[in-house]
Amino acid sequence: MDAFQYKGGELWCEDVRISELAAEFGTPLFVYSQAKLLHEFRAIKEAFAETDPVLCYSVKANSNLSLLKLLNSEGSSFDVVSGGELYRVKHAGADTTRVVFAGVGKTDEEIRFGLESNILMFNVESEAELDAIAAVAKSMDRIAPVALRLNPDIDAKTHAKTTTGKKGNKFGMDIERHNQLADKVLANPHLELRGIHMHLGSPILTTDPYEAAAKKALEVVTELRSKGHRTNWINLGGGFGLSYRGQEAPPASRYAEVILPYIRKAECRLALEPGRSICGNAAVLVSNVIYTKREGGKLFVIQDAAMNDLVRPAMYDSFHRIWPVAPRVAPPVDFEAEVQGCEPADVVGPICESGDYLAKARWLPEVKRGELLSTFSAGAYGMAMSSNYNSRPRAAEVLVNGSQVRLIRKRETYEDLIAFERGL
Ligand code: LLP
After folding, report:
1. Which of 59, 166, 276 is the pocket-test mutation for ligand 1 (most atoms within 8 Å of CB)?
2. Which residue owns the Cα nearest ligand 1 atom 3?
3. Domain boundaries 4-32+280-418, corresponding CATH code
4. In the chain, what are the domain boundaries?
5. Active-site positions?
6. What's residue 127's pLDDT?
7. Which of 60, 150, 236 is the best mutation target for the ligand 1 pocket, counting ligand atoms within 8 Å of the beta carbon and taking the most?
8. What's the per-residue H, E or C state across the chain?
């Protein structure tokens, strides 16, 4: 399903012209398709339906309240990594008894907030954290539900900065420590071991790492049960691939095919934490060309979206398709190849850093000052990682549902930029 399509020479989101949205709300602008968001969530839900999984949408990918509310109404639960994210999902009306709480540095305050919210489980990353959870639970006369995060030392073959399940990453614990901590949980009346957690990295474009993780989980659960644990949850995290380029990501059903046999054998409940694969292709970032210039033998397209709006290219060298909203040349199938009638350009933002770019040496048709560009696959880790660097107000976000348009985050103003400052 493609919610963003070129029709009659210009780009549409569902039944709305992108150019109309840019005229009404200005640029840079994140435009979301409700249909695409829900389609991707439902695809995962259907693929794993036989196990009735708890799908914990990973809030870090995009935490806009309207998106959280939509997913909540579809039966999604949530994976949170901070008190702030827990606050958001509560505000969105989530059933917190299905929420999982991850992260290597939970504070006592956040642990207390999680316990008060009756979350499903904490994904525990270290012995020190387990001790802190036990102490907070004791002080509240509660039993804290936990899952231990295993670092299975599986290479998910993704970017070094987004690999999390390899030895040497800060996440989780090795199997020896996992087993020691499981025994420690058993001995503590304020802790209950609900399950095992793993998250391998993101995005993962092959299914083998998930098969290896599911197999490992089955082994661990079997061993834990033989020692008297009543562990009945396997949480395999998020990380499902997203097609940034074309159709490179496997559908949810392929991940399900390799995971489900092990869940059946383990007779466990399954939790997953997908973020990117749900919201990534549900948005584009629309920008306006300010200038073009030729310098040093290169063509630069300077437009008003920058690394403060979408940091992924600068931070991970990631690839996002970019094409004009009303192009002179039809969009190619392969955005990485040479395109006839086009020339390579660096698409850059106004921020004072050489790393401020959305694309390098990208084949683009001629664009002029005032033309609109669309950067695709901007729904995940776009707005969520945005900043005010260079004192740039954050972009606005709109949600399209058929021909209906809703502003779901207004553009920040100059007053907003200084609103929290105190002093002289
Ligand atoms: N669960 C855990 C424990 C995670 O650490 C993450 C992502 C997820 C779930 C969700 O993964 P997803 O399904 O969205 O791939 N900013 C980077 C991605 C960082 C991912 C951090 N953890 C990027 O823009 O590529």
Report:
1. 276
2. 199
3. 2.40.37.10
4. 4-32+280-418, 63-274
5. 352
6. 96
7. 60
8. CCCEEEECCEEEECCEEHHHHHHHHCCCEEEEEHHHHHHHHHHHHHHCHHHCCEEEEEHHHCCCHHHHHHHHHCCCEEEECCHHHHHHHHHCCCCHHHCEECCCCCCHHHHHHHHHCCCCEEEECCHHHHHHHHHHHHHCCCCEEEEEEECCCCCCCCCHHHECCCCCCCCCECHHHHHHHHHHHHCCCCEEEEEEECCCECCECCCHHHHHHHHHHHHHHHHHHHCCCCCCEEECCCCECCCCCCCCCCCHHHHHHHHHHHHHHHCCEEEECCCHHHHHHHEEEEEEEEEEEEECCEEEEEECCCCCCCCHHHHHCCCCCEEECCCCCCCCCCCCCCCCCCEEEEEECCCCCCCCEEEEEEEECCCCCCCEEEECCCCCCCHHHCCCHHHCCCCEEEEEECCEEEEEECCCCHHHHHCCCCCC
Q: What is the pLDDT of residues 121-154, one digit of tens each?
A: 999 999 999 999 999 999 999 999 999 999 988 8
Q: Does this chain's domain 4-32+280-418 share its CATH topology with 63-274?
A: no
Give the pLDDT confidence of 339-370 residue by residue, as tens digits.
Answer: 999 999 999 999 999 999 999 999 999 999 99
Task: Look at the pTM and tell me if it is higher than 0.90.
Answer: yes
CATH 3.30.460.80 for domain 63-274, yes or no, is no
